[in-house]
Q: What sequence folds into this?
């Protein structure tokens, strides 16, 4: 059984004065996500990522097509006990405190009272909100709200998570914590479907990614495959422009600024180039492995081409 | 999504059914509240002047509302058959305070205030007060003098006051010439059926209100019926003197040659001849003002 | 199902209670009720009448104001602020959401009304000087006011599920005014003819009939209120407010949210 099955899901909005024409926000697409998989839904802003999530959650209704979650129709209310949703830039009832909010939501998701009492305090700790006490949500910062958002998505221990830009509003430390949290959820066997436009997050966490652009699913690929297929590249920065001549043949690219050189080199030639630079007594500033592959894949999919099913 | 369409239709039907149910319940509520309805507000608000201030400039609308209530109040009681119209003077007073220029209020009020129960409140004094107020507020509306004269003549038998009313009215620019004629008739100082007929005809022509017109016609019909019955009464009594008994039916009189055919009332139904020579109408509801002119 | 609806009901109540604007309204209303005895100083011998009249009228008017004030945002605020997203992603059915919101607002209004009624009773006991203060008919009048609020709440809910707060407020207020004069409208319809009559009759039966729910005058004058009136009024509101709420559910179930 797949965790998520999307079949020919479409959404069009009537536009124009008489609402006669249809503007497609989402063209028909098919997608399957296996149980336990972490799937990244990538796309630029306005591509249709949020629309897809709103369709799956029942916030808007599809023009045609259907979907199954954990084998049941996606509108089946019972199956919603087993899913969690974090919307983009979430807003919550600002007159409640964090524990009150989580209690309310967990109750609505069918969690019994005793279980809620036990779970909520530890959950707040886990998302880094252990000390908020009874402070009302209207006093929370954006980052704190984001953490509350994640908490409410997982409070009832769902099997499938739908996250829309889970890292938005977080400082680097926060992003790191949440990345770890998602990793631990992944390790616990949860299915995670998350949409983002930050490729490094997707690369770090996802098994597969799908690229969506202008309402169309342009491609789906396995992250590892994408990474290894193109081999690795590295970026070297050194001081001594004169050394450039010795290694020029092995370089993919280079830029010179004053006496500093920045160059890109293929993985298999990395060691040879480094040796030569040492012989030339160049001063190495940095050597950085490049994960440009996902970015390239993304870019290739989002320039206007026909859609490709990988 | 077939089941969802079925659900929508079902829900729509349920909503409609509940709404229709509520309309029926509203009718039940009306019955239950019946006569209580206007009582509440009139008890609550003492005077039209206060109400006018409270109405924040919407007194004209409020006047319409109170006028509607007055008519409904009167109508309900008339149907129910009660004899009490105590609130009618107040309602009309409030209405005319709120908007003194609704002439129907004075015309309607005078007739139904002065008519005897069960057709009216039997308060000709209140009627006079009301019409005089109307004349004060609308001095160029000469038709109100007809109303005033009418009340003085018909219900208060104050022929002098009636004459004065018609004379004053005839002096208002635009008044029709029969005002002077009616003034002269008033001077005859007695209650006379032909004058009554003339007055009701005057009432009929000087109002635009359908209800008042209807009442005038009704009165005229009843007067006609009264006159007919008086005549038939004389004929039946003459028969009795001749034959020693009362006639069994109109046929007896027709075969004698005294009547040409079965006598019919103004609504087209034959008059009823009873056991001991008493004559009546077939449907007394059509003639609510019968007997006013008998034996004159 | 019931636990979800009661959770939403209690949360709606909690939201109303924590809304500071509400406190201002309630305090103002209580002040007004408490000041009713001052009016009675003006006309001696009519103390009880005035206190009851002013008190009950205030409770009614403030109930309506609060109902409209909170009601217009019941659904539209959740759509606007997108707090609905995390609700709909849970096993909550859309109709349960509407039901919970309705019951929550009714709970708020009942509590408010009860508080103000207590204030009125206190005013009566203090100032009525032995005139019959503990009148159970007062409670009937208050009960009818709550019924009226049930209809108004249903309307705010209906409008809130598809239009903005401003329009909801305008429409509901308009319906309140028309409903108060619905009986006169029917009288007008009875007197008119032709197209006017059809239109007026139609509108007169379509709008809520609030006249039968107003027994303030009767209670003030110590008149009895028939049991049948109570039954019929309750039935009327159940049907009418029920139909309106179902209509709200029907609208909300179909709506694509932004």
A:
């Amino acid at each position: 059984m797949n965790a998520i099955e999307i079949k020919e899901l479409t959404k069009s909005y009537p536009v124009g004065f008489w609402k006669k024409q249809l503007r497609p926000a989402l063209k028909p697409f098919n997608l399957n996500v296996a149980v336990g998989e972490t799937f990244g839904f990538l796309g630029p802003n306005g591509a249709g990522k949020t629309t897809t999530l709103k369709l799956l959650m029942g916030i808007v209704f599809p023009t045609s097509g259907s979907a199954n979650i954990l084998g049941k129709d996606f509108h089946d209310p019972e199956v919603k006990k087993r899913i969690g949703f974090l919307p983009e830039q979430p807003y919550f009832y600002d007159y409640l405190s964090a524990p009150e909010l989580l209690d309310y939501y967990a109750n609505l998701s069918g969690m019994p009272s005793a279980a809620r009492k036990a779970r909520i305090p530890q959950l707040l700790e886990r998302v880094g909100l252990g000390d908020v006490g009874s402070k009302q949500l209207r006093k929370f910062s954006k980052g704190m709200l984001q953490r509350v958002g994640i908490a409410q998505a997982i409070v009832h221990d769902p099997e499938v998570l739908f996250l829309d830009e889970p890292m938005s509003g977080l400082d680097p430390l926060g992003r790191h914590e949440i990345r770890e949290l998602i990793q631990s959820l992944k390790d616990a066997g949860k299915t995670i479907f998350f949409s983002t436009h930050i490729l490094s997050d997707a690369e770090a966490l996802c098994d597969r990614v799908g690229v969506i652009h202008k309402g169309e699913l342009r491609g789906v690929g396995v992250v590892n495959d994408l990474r290894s297929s193109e081999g690795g590249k590295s970026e070297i920065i050194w001081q001594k422009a004169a050394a450039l001549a010795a290694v020029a043949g092995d370089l993919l690219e280079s830029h010179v600024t004053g006496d500093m050189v920045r160059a890109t080199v293929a993985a298999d030639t990395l060691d040879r180039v480094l040796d030569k630079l040492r012989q030339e007594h160049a001063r190495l500033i940095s050597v950085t492995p490049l994960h440009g592959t996902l970015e390239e894949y993304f870019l290739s999919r989002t320039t206007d081409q026909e859609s490709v099913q990988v | 999504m077939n089941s969802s369409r079925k659900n929508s239709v079902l829900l729509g039907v349920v909503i409609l059914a509940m709404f229709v149910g509520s309309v029926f319940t509203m009718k039940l509520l009306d019955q239950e509240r019946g006569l209580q309805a206007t009582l509440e507000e009139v008890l609550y608000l003492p005077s039209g002047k206060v109400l006018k201030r409270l109405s924040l400039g919407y007194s004209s609308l409020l006047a319409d509302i109170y006028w509607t209530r007055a008519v409904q109040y009167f109508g309900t009681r008339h149907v129910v058959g009660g004899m009490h119209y105590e609130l009618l003077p107040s309602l009309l007073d409030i209405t005319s305070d709120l908007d003194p220029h609704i002439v129907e209020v004075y015309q309607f009020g005078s007739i139904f205030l002065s008519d005897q129960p069960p057709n009216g409140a039997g308060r000709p004094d209140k009627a006079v007060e009301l019409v005089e107020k109307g004349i004060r507020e609308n001095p160029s509306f000469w038709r109100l003098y007809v109303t005033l004269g009418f009340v003085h003549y018909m219900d208060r038998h104050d022929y002098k006051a009636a004459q004065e009313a018609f004379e004053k009215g005839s002096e208002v620019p635009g008044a029709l010439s029969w005002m002077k004629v009616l003034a002269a008739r008033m001077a005859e100082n007695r209650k006379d059926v032909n004058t009554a007929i003339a007055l009701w005809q005057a009432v009929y022509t000087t109002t635009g209100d359908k209800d008042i017109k209807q009442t005038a016609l009704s009165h005229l019909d009843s007067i006609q019926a009264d006159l007919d019955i008086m005549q038939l009464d004389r004929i039946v009594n003459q028969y009795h003197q001749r034959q020693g008994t009362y006639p069994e039916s109109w046929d007896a009189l027709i075969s004698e040659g005294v009547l040409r055919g079965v006598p019919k009332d103004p609504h087209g139904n034959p008059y009823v001849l009873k056991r001991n020579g008493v004559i009546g109408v077939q449907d007394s509801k059509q003639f609510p003002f019968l007997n006013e002119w008998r034996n004159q | 199902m019931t636990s979800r609806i009661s959770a939403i009901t209690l949360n709606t109540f909690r939201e109303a209670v924590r809304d500071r604007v509400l406190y201002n309204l309630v305090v103002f209303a209580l002040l007004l009720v408490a000041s009713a005895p001052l009016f009675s100083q003006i006309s001696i011998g009519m103390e009880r009448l005035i206190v009851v009249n002013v008190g009950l009228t205030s409770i009614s008017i403030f109930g309506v104001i609060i109902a409209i004030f909170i009601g217009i945002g019941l659904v539209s605020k959740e759509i606007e602020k997108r707090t609905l997203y995390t609700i709909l992603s849970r096993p909550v059915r859309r109709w349960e959401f509407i039901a919970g919101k309705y019951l929550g607002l009714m709970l708020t209004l009942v509590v408010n009304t009860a508080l103000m009624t207590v204030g009125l009773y206190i005013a009566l006991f203090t100032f009525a000087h032995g005139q019959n203060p503990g009148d159970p008919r007062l409670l009937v009048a208050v009960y009818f006011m709550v019924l009226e609020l049930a209809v108004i709440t249903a309307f705010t809910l209906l409008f809130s599920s598809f239009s903005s707060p401003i329009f909801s407020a305008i429409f509901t207020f308009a319906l309140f005014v028309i409903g108060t004069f619905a009986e006169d409208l029917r009288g007008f319809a009875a007197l008119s003819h032709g197209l006017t009559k059809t239109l007026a009759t139609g509108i007169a039966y379509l709008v809520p009939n609030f006249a039968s729910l107003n027994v303030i005058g009767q209670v003030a004058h110590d008149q009895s209120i028939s049991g049948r009136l109570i039954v019929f009024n309750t039935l009327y509101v159940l049907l009418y407010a029920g139909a309106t709420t179902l209509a709200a559910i029907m609208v909300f179930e179909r709506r694509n949210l932004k």
Observations:
- Chain C has one domain: 2-254.
